[in-house]
Amino acid sequence: MRKRPAERLHAWIGRKQILCLMAGLFIGMAAQLWQRTDSALLEGDTLVRGSYGQGDQTYSLIVEGFGEKEVPVEMVLSERMYTKQEAHKTYEAVMVQLPQLILGNNPSLEDVRQDLNLLTYLDSYGIRLRWESDEPELLDSFGELHVQELKQRGIGEQGIKISLHVRMTEGNWPEEYELSVCVKPPVLTQQEQTEEAFVEFLKSQDELQSYTAYMKLPEEYQGQSLKYSLPEESVFVPVMGLGVAGAVLCFFGDQARQQNRTEERKRQLALDYPEVLSRLTIFLGAGMSIRTAWDKIALEYKMMVEQGRRRKRYVYEEMYETSCQMKGGVPEGKAFEEFGRRCGLQSYMKLGGLLEQNRKNGSKNLRNLLRTEMTDAFEQRKHQARRLGEEAGTKLLLPLFILLSVVMVMIAVPALMEFK
């Protein structure tokens, strides 16, 4: 009997799980064996020390024999140190290799025309090197070749011998050695030689005209007419870049401000919703129709704003707009519907629906519906006020942490200075 696809799938999943378990078991055993063979603890009581210059190593040991329990111990094992004889042999071996190591782009130490690569540390040996030159004005202790000084001294292709003294130490047994190098001026191309000669010619002209207010540049050199200009740096690209950056920042700034205004409008509409319901409920209880109550609230608000007794509120601005629409001949149902849509919040859309329902079915239960809606709105306003308070508290955390840090620094710094 052939198995159904679902049964074959379950069987395949089971085989995959078994294969995964077996693979994990095999890899775990192999890793454990490798860890034992690669252990730093040899023969149970011998630790592998770090090589020369590799620094100290920390080992976590478990010691048995102090009692019934095993005792964990942290041990810092220092690096291997040279004996005096080993250090001397190592220095001699380094001196054999050193001429090739410091050449840089020079062919040999007898033909040094560029900077030398004077190494200060040899990692493979754990040895530090300190260099000194007997002609630091020409070749300093960092290996830098001073070409201008060579020219001023008139050193030509014969070069000049310079002794480099190197002090090698592995920490305990320092020794000093000496290397001799021959420094020569760099090899210049024909174009570089011409440019250098022209610069020297300009210097001579400067000396000749040093008593005048201006310097007249030569009109020709070696039979060739010359023209001069100052290097110009294009300011168009940076200024244009600033303009583009300003435009982008203005765009995003406008977007952010618009977003903030939208969020502020939503918050204000949500906060004013219970007040609007409360006033409508009171006026309906006094026997007014919904249209009369609406117009009265809108007109009172407009008068108070014009008299400077109240600031503008988004919801009352929309109510005044709706009142003007109804006076202009717009049907009440459509005006209330547009009011809810302009406010943009679900609660105001619901209010517009209730007022439209009142127009169609009468105002028998409208007051009770508004009272129920007002109760829910006040609860939502409490939750919103609580959330705004939590957000304000969160925003205050950063300044509080900054003040706390400043106070801690003011207390800790004098204490540490006194301790030192």
UniProtKB/TrEMBL annotation:
Q: Which UniProt keywords apply?
A: Membrane, Transmembrane, Transmembrane helix
Where do the TM regions start and end? 235-252, 396-417
Protein's UniProt name? Type II secretion system protein GspF domain-containing protein
